[in-house]
Amino acid sequence: MTPKSLTSKFNQAIALIMGLMLMVVLNFYFQRLLRSSHQELYLILELEKSFFDIIISEKGVQNRSIDLEALKKRYKSLSDGLAQGRPYTQQIERLQKRKQLFSTLYGAETQRDILLDSVNTMLPELVESVRYIHEHHIAYMKNLFDRGKALQDYDTAESFKRSSVKSAPELDIIKMAVAIQNRLLDIYNSFYDLQRGVSPSDIKAVFTDRIQRFYAAINQFEDYSLDAQDGLLVEELLLNGRTFENSFLQLLHIEQQIKTLNGDLLFNRKTMLDRFKAIGHRIQEENARLKTKIEVLQSISLIATVVLVLCFLFYSRRIANALQRTVQETQKIQSDLSYEIKTGPMDFSEFKVIFKTLNTMGRTIENQFQKLEDAQQLLSNRIAERTAELLEANEKLRKEIEERIHAEHDRLDLETRLRRAQKMEAIGTLAGGVAHDLNNILAGLVSYPELILLELPPEHALRKSILTIKSSGEKAAAIVQDLLTLARRGVMTSNVINLNDILQEQINSPEYSDLLRHHPGVDVRIRMDPHLGNIRGSKVHIAKTVTNLLSNAAEAMPDGGTIVVATDNRYMDTTLRGYDHVNEGEYVALSISDTGIGISTQDLDRIFEPFFTKKQMGRSGTGLGMAVVWGTVKDHDGYIDVDSMEGKGTTFTLYFPLCRERIDDGNSKEPNWESWRANGETVLVVDDVFEQREIATQMLERLGYTTTSVSSGEAAVDYLNTHSVDILVLDMIMSPGLDGLETYQRILQHHPRQKAIIASGFAESDRVRETQRLGAGIYLRKPYTLEKLGKALQKELQRIT
């Protein structure tokens, strides 16, 4: 048995798939017809709803609550809806018929309303005419009774003259008038019957009889009544009655017409609603038929799909077996190229071709395999050699690149550090040397005035001038301390101070007056918070900082402008990122703003570098001012925030940590010299500057100490080899010869517990701290005052070693 080829099986599967796709298309088509039918059913329901809206609108038009034009628009909307899709011609014709019927009904109801108004007007006139007759004859009757002739003829007076033609007793005339009134009441009943909804045809028959009786009663009254006045009343009553009769009959005719029109409209409504229901029923039947067709197609599709899946599974298994055999035979050929695949009668013809091809390929590959192995071995050897060479070269190149990158980074880092170290070394050397020499020079300006003041009475005329000299010397010493601030920080007086006090002193200072005089176009505005908190720091340093910032702000406005200086308390609940990072906490803020030229972006990062300035060196700046500001703020554990825009101005905001301590006002009191006086102790002053030794000696003697002074470290060591003192006042820098640390080390060899205080005009260096570790006490910065010297000696002498 020869099996069919795999291609024929695929063709059969494709044919089955095509049939299945056809059924899917038909199912899609029927689904689309079903959706269209659903849409038509929805349209019919919408049209039916619109028709109900028209019925409601017609009632509204009849009740005058809806405008007629709105109803016409709804007629038009429903007509357009009926014309959409499949046209419903009969419904459109019925709608047009209904529109005409309602238009006629609306006109009839309008005419009926006019006639009703006319009839309502005529009825009171009829009543009024009957009332005149009735009242006239009541007057006759009254006159008659007054004369006692109730059963006789009329009175013989001229106004009551009887007719010569016909006459009747007066009581009979009264009865006739009452009969007219009763007939009028019958007419009223006919009108009320119409109002109550009685059929107009029934009312017409009754009304005709009643109106004739009314006329007969009037004619009888006319025949037997007076000629003069009653005749006119009867003629008016007859005329009104005829007019009322015509109007009422027309009203009955229109009411009958309205009733007929309402019936036609009711029939029209029923017809249209029945037709809508019939259309909806027809569409639902079509939907049912379409659903049946769709279900049949889906069933057939399901059966076809099952058959297709079963066929696919059956043939896929055979194909999978054939593919598996192919893989297995191929693996055998791969392991043994001389192997030959055998074919059987049940193999697919396509796989027979594949097997034959594999056999041919196996033999061909076997012939070429040896050649490929030889070539591959040769190529592998060459690749291995070349790869080794490339790896070695690549590794050398990588190491060389890494070394160059590291070397470049190290070079740039070293250059930056070297420039910074050289700059700071130069600044430190300059600051230290200048500060040491100037402090020695300024010692006389600070210390001698203090000694002179001790000798002068409080009311002496020179006391104020000497205090000014002393204050100037202290300020000069503080300025010298600015130089030390460039090289190191922390060497300053720390007291509780208030920025408002410093600003107030600045306003009253000669420097502030000079600033305003040199910059007449500058307007300075001070805004001080009256509840400003205190800070801890150096009053002189912060005053210098304010002076520098004010000077820079004024010079940034060569054409004039405004400087705003403000103080306030601030709590920073988030980190403020500006030029500096201000951490969270409580601060006292000092801001100085100007409207000047501003600072460029490239200069903003360098403004606090020492010796960086845009000013003319030697005239308006040295480049140290902002560096001193930076150092001062950092010494106070504060922050600086700079906000600047070229052409708009600059704002410097200084943040100082808030201090809860109160300002000690005791500094303003006269010193209590007695509390610092000596108790017979001896002091050795070691200083290489003659003036400094003289000042220290006089101050110590003023305090009651027994004082000896030497000019070098060697002299101090020689002196203490044969003598002893209670305490040393030791200078740190002495040249040539031993400095303070070396001097103290040698002294300790003979006097291990020797007490000493360090007095120096230089910064607190490592050698100072080393001396203190050896046993020396307080570091006293030159120039010092009598109070500071006395307190330092007393504290050190009382310290237990």
Description:
Helix content is 66%, strand content 10%. The protein contains 18 helices and 14 strands. It is of the alpha/beta class. The two termini are 123 Å apart.
How would you summarize this macromolecular structure in one to three sentences?
By secondary structure, the protein is α/β, with parallel strands linked by helices. About 65% of the residues lie in helices and about 10% in strands.
Keywords:
801 residues, alpha/beta, five-stranded mixed β-sheet, five-stranded parallel β-sheet, 18 helices
Number of helices: 18
- What topology, given as strand order, has the largest sheet? 2-4-7-9-8
What oligomeric state do these chains adopt? single chain
Strand content: 5-15%
Radius of gyration: 65 Å
Structural class assignment: alpha/beta
Mean pLDDT: 77
Which geometry do the CA atoms define? Answer: flat
The largest sheet, given as strand count, sense and whether it forms a barrel, is: 5 strands, mixed
Spans of at least 5 consecutive residues whose pLDDT stays below 50 are: 149-167
- Percent range for helical residues? 55-70%
N- and C-termini, Cα separation: 123 Å
Quantity of strands, as a count: 14
